[in-house]
Specification:
This protein is of the alpha+beta class. Helix content is 35%, strand content 20%.
Length: 283
């Protein structure tokens, strides 16, 4: 007779999570707490948790929260010859560039990097940058990301110029910037203003800590003595231990504590899960 445990297929993580969520949460905060509890029980991995929280949060975020600010915009001036700006295009490796006429408040259009192939095909004499430009789309800083994502999809547009209340250019945003909010580039769900709320103790006695938390505050909350001579924040401390900007799910241990990355993007750590461990478990 066959063993039922061997013939019955193993439940998927989604089925196990669904069973775990059968106790209906009363509000969004409780839902997030349940999701984190599922993560700690290994029903969700760090990537899945980040994406679910990203979906929950993206509707509350505005363009100003994630846009590339004006000072960091990579632009091309319409008066610059192609042979002068093409090396810049290759170095930055963007797929789209705002083209300005003298200053960043005067965006005349968007140049797609792939359209520069015509420069090599047609030759410099027959290449006209203005003819290659796509219309620029302007949006306010206050636009919700979920609405913007829908607009991007409906209009098949990938970049928008962000303007402030006075009509000046405040920055730019791409569809990739919005999507990153869903796949991990999200601020912590517990978005409080007070510094002490950057550290939250969960049911198991672990600490969820924002990357921007001051090391001094972490020491006060955990009774630790992490040095803040080289770095001011938890993100800086943890990144220095990895030797690189870590990805979600990566772990490191030092001074009797394990730090697991819950959210991070290519530039910085957003939040970590801190757990007390024995010294012999350190890596």
């Amino acid at each position: 007779m066959d063993d039922p445990s061997q013939t019955q297929p193993k439940a998927s993580w989604l089925e196990r999570l669904t069973h775990f969520l059968l106790r209906e949460p009363e509000d969004r905060g409780e839902l997030v707490e349940i999701l984190h509890s599922a993560f700690e029980r290994h029903l969700l991995d760090a990537d899945a948790l980040a994406m679910i929280e990203g979906v929950l949060n993206v509707g509350d975020m505005q363009v100003r929260d994630v846009m590339v600010p004006r000072s960091q915009m990579d632009v091309i001036d319409i008066s610059t010859p192609p042979h002068d700006f093409i090396p810049f295009v290759m170095k930055t490796a963007h797929s789209r560039f705002p083209v300005i006429d003298g200053n960043k408040d005067d965006v005349v259009g968007i140049l797609l990097a792939k359209d520069l192939l015509r420069y090599y095909a047609e030759g410099e004499d027959n290449f006209n940058v203005r003819e290659m430009l796509r219309p620029a789309v302007y949006i306010p800083e206050s636009k919700r990301l979920n609405v913007l994502l829908k607009d991007f999809r409906n209009n098949r547009n990938h970049m928008a110029i962000v303007v402030d209340e006075y009509g000046g250019v405040a920055g730019l945003i791409t569809i990739e910037d919005v999507m990153e909010q869903i796949v991990g580039d999200i601020e912590d769900e517990y978005d409080y203003d007070e510094t002490e709320d950057n550290i939250i103790v969960d049911r198991r006695g672990h600490w969820r800590v924002k990357g921007v938390t001051e090391i001094e505050d972490l020491n006060e909350a955990l009774g630790t003595n992490f040095s803040d001579e080289e770095f001011d924040t938890v993100a800086g401390l943890v990144t220095s231990r990895f030797g690189h900007v870590p990805k979600r799910g990566e772990r490191t241990a030092f001074d009797g504590y394990t730090f697991q990355i819950v959210r991070a993007d290519s530039r910085r750590v957003h939040s970590v899960l801190v757990e007390k461990v024995q010294e012999e478990e350190e890596v």
